[in-house]
Amino acid sequence: xxxxxxYIAHYRTDAENFDYFTNQDPDDRAYEKIFxxxxxxxxxxxxxxxxxxxxxxxxxxxxHDNIFYVDLSPKNLASLRSDTSGPVMADAQRLPFxxxxxxxxxxxEIIEHLNDPATAxxxxxxxxKPGGRAIVSTPYKEKIRYAxxxxxxxxxxxxxxxxxxxxxxxxxxxxxxxxxxSFVFGSKILTTMRMPRIFTKLPLWTWxxxxxxxxxxxxxxxxxxxxxxxxxxxR
Length: 235
Hints:
Blueprint: H1 7-17, H2 26-42, E1 48-52, E2 66-71, H3 74-78, E3 85-89, E4 102-108, H4 117-127, E5 128-139, E6 146-148, E7 155-157, H5 167-172, E8 179-187, H6 188-192, H7 196-199, H8 204-217, E9 221-229
Parallel strand pairs: 1-2, 1-4, 2-3, 4-5
Antiparallel strand pairs: 5-9, 6-7, 8-9
């Protein structure tokens, strides 16, 4: 299994040196706009949000009363303060929240970077309030590529992605969920043809219809999204 020897130090240094949130390619930005709109639609309207691996803080688009941004980087967190937010410098594998205390948890594009995704999923489930909902998104069936690092002479995965996921793997991390669903999103046919820039001007349902048809024909997509809910009677 792939592991990062010190992923906390890695992501703090990474944030100091690279800006992934303002310098995207126009096609990538268009796709992210569509994808995030889809996630927002799955979130309902929680009062309190915990955003794990918050990065640029796009989850503020979800209607909320309070949002806790969880990240390993002081630089990222310093830019996210607002009247409704609280920055929390913490590890996804050790969340500083009480059991059954959070109404909505989102971990978008983070679990593939972690040494132990199962532990992070367990933490998400632990802090989720009965009746609460969690959303986890990650690249779908990613074929991880490697390079030889010129500094340490070790084989290193591109983009620091340590794990690849399909539906069964990701859903298996939440065996106790009262309700769990998965969505495969972002046909690579559409993204290769640079279609997202067109679809940003159209209703989301138009993308979803074509996206589902193409993924059904060719099982190649950008993301898998899992939505899990904790039984309101759970304690």
